[in-house]
Fold this sequence. Notes:
Elements: H1 2-10, H2 15-36, H3 41-46, H4 53-85, H5 87-105, H6 111-123, H7 127-138, H8 144-173, H9 175-196, H10 212-218, H11 222-241, H12 246-253, H13 260-289, H14 291-309, H15 315-343, H16 349-377, H17 380-402
Helix pairs in contact: 2-7, 2-8, 2-9, 4-5, 4-6, 4-16, 5-6, 5-7, 5-9, 7-8, 7-15, 7-16, 8-9, 8-13, 8-15, 11-15, 11-16, 11-17, 12-13, 13-14, 13-15, 14-15, 14-17, 16-17
Amino acid sequence: MYAKFKDLLFRPRTLWEKNLIVLWCGTFMAGIAFSLIMPFLSLYIDTLGNFSKDELNFYSGITYSATFLVMAIISPFWGKLADRKGRKLMILRASLGMAIVIGLMGAVTNIYQLIILRLLQGIFSGYVSNSNALIATETPKEHSGKALGILITGNVTGTLFGPLFGGFVAANFGYRITFVITGVILLIVFLLSVFFVHESFVPVEKSQMKSAREIFSTLPNRRIIIGMLFTTMLIQLGNFSISPILSLYIRELMNYHGPVTIVSGIIASLPGFSTLFAAPRLGALGDKVGTERILMFGMIAAALIYLPMAWVTNVWELGILRFLIGITNAALLPAVQALLAKNSPTAATGRIFSYNQSFQALGNVSGPLVGSFVSGLWDYSNVFLSTAVIIFLGCFWVHFSVKAKK
Length: 406
């Protein structure tokens, strides 16, 4: 046992393993940075003007969505540039750009400046997606599922700790200092990436670059690639559809008494803990039994778990189901990314992953809209029912998509 442990710690690492370690640290810190400011963003907006309740809700929605809308539009451009210049360059561009933009958010004097910076944040996005693309291209195909499963835990773990750290910093030092600290964290990510990430990349001349139409027309498993892009959007739509109403649903379950904010934070974080432990194991299992099977298992399980959330009677039941959802999350996005990596030509991997980020951003935007619409039309319970239906229908889409490989 000791010899095995010693080998794990001290054996020589291959290039892809070294990149994986550094990028795990980078995505962990990026996850902290991106989620650090989210718990108090609306409260920060409220300090930038004398807004009515409706105005505050409107500006909060615009400010939150601005980044994802720009990401959906700009990601394919960055993906094309990544295929020409390399994924490492895109990682450096994203981390440095975000460090500057988010740091400047602490100096804004009105809501319009904040919205502009949130739009710029979308332009400088792409650290996590390009990290995925770099690992996908530098890792042997037989290890890609495991590697991507491990990598996603970095971002998930950072996202878990970000709101807790951000809440502590904001409470003790104020909102503006929190943005500055976030910028410093991303600057550290930039420096880590500069010195410790290595890419064996051969630049492609602009004249030799294929258009998006040419790439998709020559893909050996085109249906799988297109299918996984839409699957990403469905997964994110399902995940984010409950985000606007989760704390309100918890408040109802607690009969409007008790520490609603603390309980909401804990229950919101539970899926991250189970994803953290399950993702590497499910990724490795997918390499052995087939990533398609892991993805299908995750979709079916997620639909079945969302369904009873509509009828829970206390926060304990909801917490248990949220923990189980984290396990299905560990089977979903890593499996999609592994299938994209295994079915994308190396010369087009950057663009394929950038398209995936665009579809992910579309899911991030449309999910809260669906959740808000359903809860406004009916009640909170129906949001979980509609989410279960969306994910269940996604099972048929996944089956249709991966059937092309058989």
